[in-house]
Automatic annotation (TrEMBL):
InterPro entries: Dcc1. It comes from the Eukaryota. It comes from Indicator maculatus. Signal peptide: none annotated. The keyword Thylakoid does not apply. This is Sister chromatid cohesion protein DCC1. PANTHER family: SISTER CHROMATID COHESION PROTEIN DCC1, SISTER CHROMATID COHESION PROTEIN DCC1-RELATED. It holds the Pfam family Dcc1. Keywords: DNA replication. GO terms for cellular component: chromatin; chromosome, centromeric region; Ctf18 RFC-like complex. GO terms for biological process: DNA replication; maintenance of mitotic sister chromatid cohesion.
Length: 391
């Protein structure tokens, strides 16, 4: 039954409330026939996200059944966690807030409202790193070995379009596309592929040998001549892809396309090629072979190998070995565990490249080390070891 004004006033008196301190308008609530828990979900959004929704953009929930759910906007990824509340949250269509009632003094003084649903929790969003490790794993199932590869003709592995990756990877579209660029992936017949490393080196070698034979400057490699000269050896789009991967594209005043080759990236790839066939390499011998293996005019430096290789200064003679950051676990604690299994004590300089990608927005490597490692001094140098025993 609908309450009358007299019943409302009697209730206020019983509750010992002074009507003069309240707004004259009263909401009388009753549960509608369909009101139930679990029919609706509440999602708490930061202002930027709600603005995007109101502007007509989409938010997408991503994750396979076994994965922790995330929500993605066009360019960011958020962890979704259920937050319980001690107050019952009621959904009341057309409910007027005190501010609206103050502005609308002429309003009828009893409003009868039906509760359409209720909830005891809501989804809370927390900005997180995109989960991109799976992207490399999927593309590495079937790396591209070139047009003559028999494997590519008969391969049973899945190939992935942009749409496939958007449904499988827990990251926003912009983060996925950026990572594909970082990984030097390329689109072949509509599918994203990573070049098999030996094939990539073969392509790079063709380009560097041509630069050498033509005596071009490393900062001015002409696209057109590369395509004309090397097009008979490999597909032209592969030659252009390798130039885009290892050079910076620019157009001169005459409209010709040139590439400035990236010294650090070429030296790094050459080091990977040398190191991947040895468990450990004598450091001074490696440095000698490495410098001889890069194109003339390029200078090798150990700081080109951050996140790719690690020098062991404690062994005699000193050695170097391959340790790629992308092969390490994505989870923070697991990453630290695996690093402390490799080496018991690390300097910040050595461990930095292997944890840099774990830093959240505005978080430093130092802050991450404080959280996951214990520091001590060793021969006047600050070193970090695990906070917990590593099995």
């Amino acid at each position: 039954a609908m309450r009358s004004r007299e019943e409302v006033d009697a209730t206020l008196q019983t509750a010992k409330l002074n009507p003069a301190e309240l707004l004259p308008v009263v909401h009388c609530l009753s549960f509608g026939p369909q009101a139930g828990a679990g029919d609706c979900c509440l999602l708490q959004l930061e202002p930027g996200l709600s603005d995007q929704l109101e502007a007509g953009c989409s938010l997408v929930i991503r994750g396979e059944k076994h994965e922790q759910v995330v929500l993605c906007s066009k360019d960011k990824t958020y962890d979704m966690k259920i937050a319980d509340t001690s107050n019952m949250l009621l959904f009341i269509p057309g409910c007027k807030t005190p501010e609206q009632l103050k502005a609308d003094q002429a309003s009828c003084n009893i409003i009868h409202s039906q509760i359409a649903g209720f909830s005891k929790n809501y989804w809370e969003l927390r900005r997180c790193r995109p989960k991109l490790k799976k992207l490399r794993k999927l593309l590495m199932e079937d790396p591209y070995e070139g047009p003559d590869s028999q494997k590519d003709q008969t391969s049973d592995f899945s190939k992935y379009t942009t749409e496939d990756l958007l449904s499988l990877i827990q990251a926003s579209e912009e983060e996925i596309l950026h990572q594909l660029q970082v990984m030097d992936a390329c689109k072949i017949e509509g599918y994203w592929r990573i070049l098999e490393f030996d094939y990539e080196m073969k392509l790079l070698n063709h380009v560097t040998q041509l630069i050498d034979s033509e005596s071009w400057s490393l900062s001015k490699v002409p696209l057109r001549t590369c395509l004309e000269e090397l097009g008979s050896l490999e597909p032209r789009e592969m030659i252009e892809h390798i130039l885009l991967s290892y050079g910076r594209k620019y157009i001169d005043d005459a409209g010709e396309v040139y590439f400035e080759m990236q010294e650090d990236k070429i030296c790094r790839a050459t080091a990977q090629m040398l190191l991947q066939n040895a468990v450990k390499f004598n450091l001074s011998e490696f440095q000698e072979v490495w410098q001889q293996s890069v194109p003339e005019g390029m200078t090798t430096r150990l700081d080109q190998l951050k996140g790719l290789a690690l020098v062991d200064k404690s062994s005699r003679p000193e050695t170097i070995f391959l340790l790629k950051v992308e092969d390490l676990p994505e989870d923070n604690q697991e990453r630290f565990n695996s690093l402390f299994r490799i080496r018991e004590k690390w300097t910040e300089v050595d461990i930095g490249p292997y944890i840099q990608d774990l830093c959240a927005e505005k978080q430093t490597v130092g802050a991450l080390l404080t959280k996951y490692a214990r520091s001590s001094m060793q021969n006047g140098v600050k070193v970090y070891n695990s906070r917990r025993p590593i099995s």
